[in-house]
Design goal:
11 helices; seven-stranded antiparallel β-sheet; alpha/beta; 25% helix; ten-stranded mixed β-sheet
């Protein structure tokens, strides 16, 4: 638990201290032909070595646990046409009614979503339409503006026929590749902007650290004795929102929804060797999970959500074992097999990692919350890591190369 003075110190981290020059030509606009062909920067005990991603087979050891985010990117961008010829883009962010992701995707006839709307000045009122074909039949998807919520629009969708909203999106929508690629999505993005293990629909951005893994690689790791587990965190559009404040304390993190199985909680409780998270979304989910358990121990009535700075103000002396025991007791009491929660956790330098020992992650944008997370893991060595990547031709951002970082900053005094 941080004192008020310690917390204010963290909130006053200056974003300009987490900047570096990223030339546009170093941003990977397209993926490599082979997922495993990317470079891999390995950072352990202050040392850096360069490998190929396929060599993960040799790097990981029996008994280690590799945890993936199995979320699937949805076709969140829908283009509607008005009779005037105006094109309105509706970007689906998260379900509103039904609020549950699975129920919303299974809905037939109608549903509501919280959305961003492009060219909104052309859509002041009325219903807009998108006509489409599915299995040889013609359908119409209609959208109507409802109330505004926190600067975003609630859109009511209606469509004819016996189709689920998941099927409607699959035909009407486009895959939402990152805006910094400065291009429209292509057919190849339908495959390459998804991980090979994705199956839980809900994200508007891919957990890109997992894009390097192949089914063959995963099979080989399982055969070697590496434990492979999954969790779900649906990635929101806020992951691309730059920090526009001078200090990180002025930045509001976006809420993301997570789903955890009892099996994963038991795995974490019985941890004997390293836990390796694949991607910052897995990191944030696993670390949030620890604090949800702490909230339950501390007697919080609602422990199903974690606010942005809450991890720094909660009691911090509980072990991972104790935290997971508290969550397992909840599973016992409710007979539930999945825990659904929400997190806005922010991980900045000074954070002490409670669950993970290492992580796979790509190379992130300057002055981003993800770069702060990396700095929380490796301290000032982030300069050495990013300088090495820049000097040795690594490709940056979502379709870029990968790194395997062992946590070196435990901050036992915080």
């Amino acid at each position: 638990m941080k004192t008020e003075e310690e917390l204010n110190y963290l909130k006053n981290i200056r974003m300009e201290d987490y900047s570096y020059e990223l030339p546009d030509e170093r941003i990977a606009k397209f993926p490599l032909n082979e997922r495993e062909a990317s470079k891999l920067l390995v950072y352990r005990n202050g040392e850096i070595e360069e490998r190929r991603f396929g060599e993960v087979r040799e790097l990981l050891k029996p008994g280690q646990t590799l945890i993936f985010n199995n979320t699937k990117v949805i076709h969140a961008r829908i283009f509607f046409h008005k009779l005037t010829g105006a094109v309105i883009e509706v970007f689906c962010l998260e379900p509103y009614l039904p609020e549950d992701y699975a129920q919303n995707f299974a809905a037939k006839g109608c549903c509501d979503w919280i959305c961003m709307v492009g060219n909104m000045k052309k859509w002041k009122e009325g219903v807009i339409e998108c006509r489409f074909e599915y299995n040889g039949s013609e359908y119409i998807l209609q959208a109507g503006r409802e109330e505004q919520k926190n600067g975003k629009i609630i859109v009511h969708f209606e469509w004819n026929g016996d189709l689920s909203f998941s099927e409607v999106l699959e035909v009407c929508g486009r895959i939402p590749i990152p805006p910094y690629l400065h291009r429209e999505s292509e057919a190849s993005d339908e495959i390459r902007y998804q991980t090979v293990y994705s199956h839980e629909e809900g994200s508007v951005a891919a957990p890109t650290a997992g894009l390097h893994f192949t089914r063959s690689l995963l099979d080989d790791l399982r055969a070697k004795g590496v434990n492979v587990r999954e969790l779900t965190l649906h990635v929101g559009a806020g992951t691309f929102r730059p920090v526009q404040t001078e200090t990180i304390g002025g930045h509001d993190m976006h809420t993301e929804h997570l789903i955890i199985t009892r099996d994963l909680v038991e795995c974490l409780r019985n941890k004997s060797k390293e836990i390796i998270a694949v991607g910052t979304t897995s990191v944030r989910t696993l670390e949030s999970l620890y604090w949800l358990g702490v909230k339950r121990i501390a007697g919080y009535d609602d422990f199903f959500s974690l606010q942005q700075w809450e991890a720094y103000t909660l009691p911090s002396h509980y072990s991972l074992h104790e935290s997971m025991d508290a969550l397992l007791l909840w599973f016992d009491e409710t007979n539930e097999e999945m825990l659904k929660a929400a997190t806005t956790i922010i991980i900045v330098p000074g954070y002490r990692f409670r669950v993970i020992d290492a992580m796979f992650t790509n190379f992130h944008q300057p002055q981003s919350t993800l770069l702060l997370l990396v700095a929380a893991a490796v301290g000032d060595d982030r300069h050495k890591i990013y300088d090495y990547a820049m000097e040795h031709g690594f490709r940056f951002l979502s379709y870029g190369d990968s790194s395997l970082l062992k946590i070196s900053c435990l901050h036992p005094h915080l």
